[in-house]
Write a structure and sequence with these properties.
By secondary structure, the protein is mainly beta. The protein has 2 domains: 84 residues, Elongation Factor Tu (Ef-tu), domain 3 (Beta Barrel), CATH 2.40.30; 64 residues, PRC-barrel domain (SH3 type barrels). The protein has 3 helices and 12 strands; from the N terminus they run E-E-H-E-E-E-H-E-H-E-E-E-E-E-E. A 6-stranded antiparallel barrel has the order 1-2-5-4-3-6. A 6-stranded mixed beta sheet has the order 10-9-8-7-12-11, with no helix packed on it. A hairpin with a 4-residue loop joins strand 11 and strand 12. The chain is elongated. The relative contact order is 0.16.
């Protein structure tokens, strides 16, 4: 079964088993609402049922039915929360899941020259930013805006970008 990341448990919150989650989804209201089922990436895979979720600063606080106290919650620190491919909804044209973009080769939109590979995506504010790692290992962040990202072809694992002066 294909599983996709929607968050990472980064810490505990309180003594009743609530956890702080770094969001890796554009749909936290859906993913972390009561009744949703998420899986831990750990071996063996464990399914968790959300009983409550709410935004908290740039994170989400999430409570699971299976986690009753602080000691159980501590064991989850660092683990990824996943959803099955069948639980993903269709996106509008021009929108993509992170897993469709990460790993794409990034080419200069004007010259066609390989610049690097998309290795990470963050969502710190109004726009996502993509980490582009060059073949030499150096990396830079590129905003996901029309001026920088010219074309995305997830089927070919390829993006055409324009690196604005000073970004790389």
């Amino acid at each position: 079964m294909d599983l996709y990341e929607v968050g990472q448990i980064i810490n505990t919150h309180g003594i009743n088993g609530e956890v702080k989650v770094k969001v890796i989804t554009d749909f936290p209201d859906q993913r972390f609402q009561a009744g949703q089922h998420l899986r831990l990436q750990a071996e063996p895979e464990q399914e968790l049922t959300v009983t409550a979720g709410r935004p908290f600063k740039q994170f989400w606080l999430v409570k699971f039915a299976e986690i009753a106290d602080l000691d159980q919650a501590k064991k989850l620190q660092g683990q990824m929360l996943m959803v099955a491919a069948s639980d993903q909804q269709a996106l509008p044209t021009g929108s993509y899941y992170y897993h469709q973009i990460i790993g794409c080769q990034a080419y200069d939109a004007e010259t066609g020259k390989l610049i690097g590979k998309v290795t990470d995506i963050e969502a710190p504010g109004a726009n996502d930013i993509w980490q582009i790692t060059k073949p030499n290992g150096a990396a830079f962040w590129l905003p996901y805006i029309p001026a920088c990202v010219k074309k995305v072809d997830p089927d070919q694992k390829r993006v055409l970008i324009k690196v604005m002066e000073g970004l790389d």
